[in-house]
UniProtKB/TrEMBL annotation:
Homodimer. This is Shikimate dehydrogenase (NADP(+)). The active site is at 72 (proton acceptor). Shikimate binds at residues 21-23, 68, 92, 107, 224, 252. It catalyses: shikimate + NADP(+) = 3-dehydroshikimate + NADPH + H(+). GO terms for molecular function: NADP binding; shikimate 3-dehydrogenase (NADP+) activity. Belongs to the shikimate dehydrogenase family. It comes from Rhodoplanes elegans. GO terms for cellular component: cytosol. Keywords: Amino-acid biosynthesis, Aromatic amino acid biosynthesis, NADP, Oxidoreductase. Residues 245-267 form the SDH C-terminal domain. It comes from the Bacteria. Residues 13-94 form the Shikimate dehydrogenase substrate binding N-terminal domain. Its EC number is 1.1.1.25.
């Protein structure tokens, strides 16, 4: 399926709002690098219009789409999801398989691929991971860790019932705890993952000391604005290995591009510098005044 006007294969990101998305920058870079005659656009679609928009993706000239907030759970019900999307309970990638609309979730593989790149062999001998938060991002992270075979995954959340839901969803490796219990586990935690928005620009800080983490621990933060969160800065000061949110953002985009355009792209330092520069520019006072932060 191609854009009926230009003849190019086209994909898009659908969100509400959507202007802040870095997906166009990532996918347009790959289109250029691989010499593909295609396009990637932003579609701001309110929740009440999402179902109609998705059902007419082909008519709008799209071969597929990324789905971001607040549509990830709705997308699961409007397409045929794979087992990964069903298990995570949300879809972030849609593609047309002939006339059939299919859905998957690439957040888990993006998280794991970023860990593999940023902290090679991070899972060698790993017994205990601690995940902060129990929302949609945590579901993707826990799915990835269970799939990789991590034997103990503590999920800390202020509302323990939400952490318990992850235990029911992903099995006995997942151990729900209250947020206040997390620090008591640091001595045995070999992988610490922040899936909350704490530490993000405009959000409260994640106030948690890392002094008790083992010297071989890895710290991952899904937040990518700022590029280095206070959590990652504290990990750097301790000499711990780190995996940042920007790396996950880049790696989760790989499979969607492959599904839409037929080429599996590479996450390169050049691409990372491109998106870093955009994030830094958006964080300047002038950009914020113009509404460009995001």
């Amino acid at each position: 399926m191609t854009d009926s006007v230009s003849g190019m294969r086209a994909a898009c990101v659908i969100g509400w709002p959507a202007a802040h998305s870095r997906s166009p920058l990532i996918h347009r870079h790959w289109l250029s690098v691989y010499g593909i005659a295609g396009d990637y656009r932003v579609e701001a679609v309110p929740p009440e219009d999402f179902a109609a928009f998705v059902k007419d993706l082909a008519g709008r000239g799209y071969v597929g789409a990324n789905v971001t907030l607040p549509h990830k759970e709705a997308a699961l019900t409007l397409a045929t999801p794979d087992e990964r999307a069903k298990k995570i309970g949300a879809a972030n990638t849609l593609w047309l398989d002939g006339t059939k609309l299919r859905a998957t979730n690439t957040d888990a593989e993006g998280f794991i691929a970023n860990l593999d790149a940023a902290a090679p062999k991070w899972d060698r001998g790993l017994e205990t991971a601690l995940v902060l938060g129990a929302g949609g991002s945590a579901r993707a992270v826990v799915y990835g860790l269970v799939d990789r075979g991590v034997p103990r995954i503590y999920v800390a959340n202020r509302t323990v019932a939400r952490a318990e839901e992850l235990g029911r969803r992903f099995g006995p490796a997942v151990r729900p705890i209250h947020w206040d219990e997390a620090r008591g586990l640091f001595g045995a935690t070999q992988l610490l993952v922040n899936t909350t928005t704490l530490g993000m620009v405009g959000q409260p800080a994640l106030e948690i000391g890392l002094g008790r983490l083992p010297a071989n621990a890895v710290v991952a933060d899904l937040v990518y604005a700022p590029l280095e969160t206070a959590l990652l800065a504290a990990a750097r000061e301790r000499g711990l290995r780190r995996a940042d949110g920007l790396g996950m953002l880049l790696h989760q985009a790989v499979r969607g591009f492959a599904l839409w355009f037929g080429v599996t792209p590479e996450v390169t330092p050049e691409l990372r510098k491109l998106v870093e520069a955009d994030l830094i520019a958006a964080a300047t006072p002038a950009a914020k005044a113009a509404g460009g932060a995001g």
